[in-house]
Amino acid sequence: MTAHKAHAPPGLKKVNPNKQPPSNKATPKTAPSQRPSGPKKQLEQETTQNADTLDMDMAGLNIVKPQDSQPEEEAPPKISIARERILEEARKEATSGDSDGRKRLSLVVIGHVDAGKSTLMGRLLYECGQVEEKRRREHERASEKAGKASFSWAWELDAGAEERERGITMDIAQSVLPTEHRIISILDAPGHKDFVPNMISGASQADCALLVVDAATGAFEKGFEGGGQTREHIGVVRSLGVRNIVVAVNKMDMVDYRKSRFDEIQVALLPFLVQAGFNTSRVTFVPCAGVSGVNLTKSEEPALQSWWDGKPIVDHLDRLEPPIRDFDTPLRIPISNVFKGVTSSGIGISGRISGGIVQVGERVRIVPGDETAVIKSIEKDDVNVQWAAAGSNVTIYLANIDPIHLSIGSVLCSPSDIVPLASSFNAQIIVFDIQLPIIGGSSVELFHHSREVPASVSKLIETVDRATGAVIKRNPRVLPKSSSAKVTISLRVSSGPSARPASIPLEPFSVNKEMGRILLRRGGETIAAGE
Fold first, then answer.
1. pLDDT for residue 300
2. Distance of CA 69 to CAs 47, 62, 422, 423, Å?
3. 85 assigned to some structural domain
4. Cα-only R_g, the chain
5. Are 106 and 180 within one domain?
6. Which of 10, 171, 346, 423 has a CA 20 to 30 Å removed from the CA of 456?
7. What is the domain range of residue 312?
8. How many CA atoms lie within 13 A of 256 on its CB side?
9. Exposure of 531 in the CB half-sphere (CA atoms within 13 A)
């Protein structure tokens, strides 16, 4: 990267765009057969017991942990950082930011396919000085040669050959956007309905969301009303704990920057966002044009300036607040990707720390299973660090572990505080706007972080009032759309001579919110969310 560099606006700092992790994809490839997979009252586990699972009485929160199959090896010496010191530094950084006063947060970019998500983010990274001119020209020439000139900005994030050939995002692409007051980990999610499972994996790692909608005539309606993914994406991110959302009304140049079109979209979308659980004070609408860069970092378009006097996209992202976290909790790191490190880096995993703190030299347990490994190195936002805390999206390299014991959806935890396993549990769910009701015994796909497992809604216990929690009906026959209910969910039994129920690392929502959220899908649509 040389030549004419793009200048960052005041307050924006530059990171090296060439410094990439071994894979910029945060999720597995998209074939359903290859994906392991991914919210409202406390989970209660049905009593089960086998070699790999626990007896968990969620009602009483009594957890009986399995005995190790063999004595735990003595952990090697840790880097000499006391836990109390790490906790103090983590709390200070969460409150006051890093040495430059910038807080860290992760942002998932969502929206219907062809809304222009990757193009908008590629252009935003360029405008903020994260893509040098030489790299931009390379993408421009390569995309034009491939007959995909209109996708040149998107190629900064859509790096896969198949993604570039098809012109759509398929996996979660990651990048880092430093602003004046924030260091933002960008998770660019696929918009096509075939890749919603990958979108769920990305959303489970996010603090906030950027929803991109297409302002072109008929395009917004297609994504929002015509069986598009806008509604499903909104429901998913809110169910996974996202509370702040910025809505980028993109491609305003296609409608001549008309205020009436912007208002029309806002009037249609805001009530649905509120219905999904977003507070209006946490929703912001911003008009923009991703291809031309209008209102991403500044607005110099007269037609827009004639009626818009608000801030550009980057200013709104710069003001997003990360959630408040308690770091003094058991270590939980759900794995979203596994890969072989370069040179001597070893085996790498990526994921978001859902609880606790971790440091280099620490020994961790991989669950399910009884294998342990040692933390060899930690990367946060492409920078090597000695420790990381809950809320951080990290790449971790492990030593003393065979990769056969690592899989997407497994959880790293402390050998002395193992995450519970469950094969059947009770959950409070909210049913989405579905066409067919849920009945007892319904087959579903259960999503927990990046893990996808076959399951069934084995019992309908009761329906409850969403506002008060009061029981409406016990042992209902069906669950219609928009209902709230307590149900039993059972993972399906594996096939073969040693068939037994699958199990997943799971905790009550009251213990760890991120470890207690689930989503249910059926027939290619998300039908419910629970916890």
1. 85
2. 21, 22, 18, 20
3. no
4. 23
5. yes
6. 171
7. 97-318
8. 2
9. 18
Q: 176: which residues sit within 8 A by CB, 6+ positions away?
A: 15, 130, 183, 184, 185, 186, 381, 382
d(CA 531, CA 82): 34
What tokens appear for 313 in the block? 């996209």
CA distances 418 to 121, 367, 415, 482, 505, Å, are 39, 8, 6, 36, 9
Q: Is 213 helix (H, G, I), strand (E, B) or coil?
A: strand
Domain assignment present for 18: no
Preceding omega of 77 cis (within 30 degrees of 0): no
**22 inside domain:** no
Residue 183 CA to residue 381 CA, distance in Å, equals 8
The 3 state secondary structure assigned to 414-438 is ECCECCCEECEEEEEEEECCCCCCE
Instruction: Clarify whether residues 180 and 276 are in a common domain.
Output: yes
Helix axis angle, 196-203 to 230-239, nearest 10°: 30
Q: Is residue 267 part of a domain?
A: yes
pLDDT interval class at 75 (50, 70, 90):
very low
Phi first, then psi: what are they for 482, rounded to 5°? 65, 10
Q: What is the pTM of this model?
A: 0.82
Helix (H, G, I), strand (E, B) or coil at 525: strand
